[in-house]
Design a protein that fits this description.
Layout: E1 4-6, E2 32-36, E3 39-45, E4 52-60, E5 71-75, H1 82-93, E6 101-105, H2 111-114, H3 117-124, E7 132-136, H4 137-148, H5 156-164, H6 170-178, H7 182-186, E8 194-197, E9 202-205, E10 208-215, E11 222-227, E12 232-236, H8 258-269, E13 277-280, H9 289-313, H10 318-325, H11 332-352, E14 355-359, E15 365-369
Length: 370
């Protein structure tokens, strides 16, 4: 069938700790790559520095997994751009044409994951039987809130929060204040009705049972999916093969220990077999999850040591940590994410008692050894 690719994994005699069973192979936009029976990979372009997202299409039978009509469950939806919507239309006119969508499962509330959820439901459900959104309650509510008001990386509250952590350049602050429609421009609508996903819950999709694993720190209640029988983990953004997941503290929860929550969530994944095939939202499918988890722990430990050393040299703000944590030039979009990460590292050390924090005369939080 045009637009459908079946590839066999490459086999190596002595694989390294982290391996990529399909090498550099990936589906082209508008095509699907079949990884296992009933498990398909599609890949969409995104208009950011992180320029792609992996989305997963699973064979199903109906919205409850108990019927007889063949359908699709889609895991994550992509940002609401015309490019991605056109790619979905190509897929449903070709490789996905034989079935309707019965379930839209979203790992978490960020725009690249929930952005097209309502659009996919509207366009590709069976006639008279709309697909249902499946998502954690916390992230569903967070996505609805973000669509209705400005949270996180734009608007007056975000500008005030970043200013309280030392970001004071007038042009940057003005641009952050002006980003009042950032989330809703990427997520025009979040489905109102949904089925709740919870930690430990089992979801039957097609021939597989998937256990929900809640993760924290990247989003309020991220849901990864583990299939024990076949050793599969749809890891979302919680476990990526090469880049470090963004872990940010934002204005809505300014004292959060997001990094502590994230690291604890990673440790829960150590209980999974090391040869589990991880299906990440960004990067390539990989094995060697224990090695990757340790790499991420080591990465953050190094960053925390650098932050401690900088704060020991002088009381420092999150903005002053940007060149410590990020060695490259950042544009404004990247700076807002970097500020969230900087506060996350400082807050983690503050919660551990390694740092204390005080407001200086300009209203900026400064951190120094506790």
């Amino acid at each position: 069938m045009v637009g459908m690719t079946q590839l066999a994994p490459t086999v190596t005699a002595a694989p390294p700790a982290i391996t990529y069973p399909w090498g550099e192979a990936m589906p082209a936009t508008g095509e699907r790559l079949d990884l296992r029976r009933g498990l398909h990979w599609v890949r969409m372009p995104m208009p950011f520095a992180l320029n792609h997202i992996n989305l997963w299409v699973l064979d199903d039978h109906d919205a409850d997994g108990a019927g007889t009509q063949p359908t699709w469950t889609i895991v994550d939806a992509g940002v609401a751009t015309e490019t991605i919507r056109s790619a979905w239309q190509t897929l449903f006119a070709g490789p996905l044409a034989e079935r309707p969508l019965s379930r839209m499962l979203v790992t978490h509330m960020h725009p690249d994951h929930v952005g097209n959820a309502q659009w996919l439901i509207d366009h590709f459900s069976a006639p008279q039987q709309p697909a249902r959104l499946w998502m954690s309650a916390t992230d569903h509510f967070a996505a609805q809130l973000a669509c209705q008001s400005t949270t996180g990386f734009g608007g007056e509250r975000a500008a005030a929060f970043f200013m309280s952590h030392g970001l004071r350049q007038p042009d940057d602050v003005a641009k952050i204040r002006a980003r009042t429609g950032y989330f809703s421009s990427l997520v025009p609508e979040v489905p109102h009705a949904y089925r709740r996903l919870m930690d430990g819950m089992t979801v039957h999709i097609g021939e597989r049972d998937w256990q929900c694993m809640a993760g924290h720190g990247h989003s309020p209640e991220h849901i990864a999916l583990f299939n024990e029988r076949d050793g599969l983990l749809i890891s979302g953004d919680m476990l990526l093969p090469k880049i470090s997941t963004n872990v940010s503290v934002l204005d809505l929860e300014p004292e959060a220990d997001a990094l502590g929550l994230f690291l604890a969530s990673l440790d829960r994944m150590r209980a999974l077999p090391d040869d589990t095939l991880a299906l990440p939202s960004h990067g390539l499918p990989f094995t060697g999850i224990h090695t990757r988890i340790q790499q991420l722990h080591d990465h953050h430990a190094e960053r925390l040591d650098e932050v401690l050393a900088a704060c020991a040299a002088k009381p420092s703000s999150a903005a002053e940590m940007l060149p410590v944590l990020f060695k490259r030039q950042l544009d404004l979009h990247q700076t807002t994410f970097a500020m969230g990460e900087s506060v996350a590292h400082l807050n983690h050390l503050w919660h551990q008692g390694a740092l204390k924090r005080e407001i200086d005369g300009e209203g900026v939080w400064r951190f120094s050894p506790g």
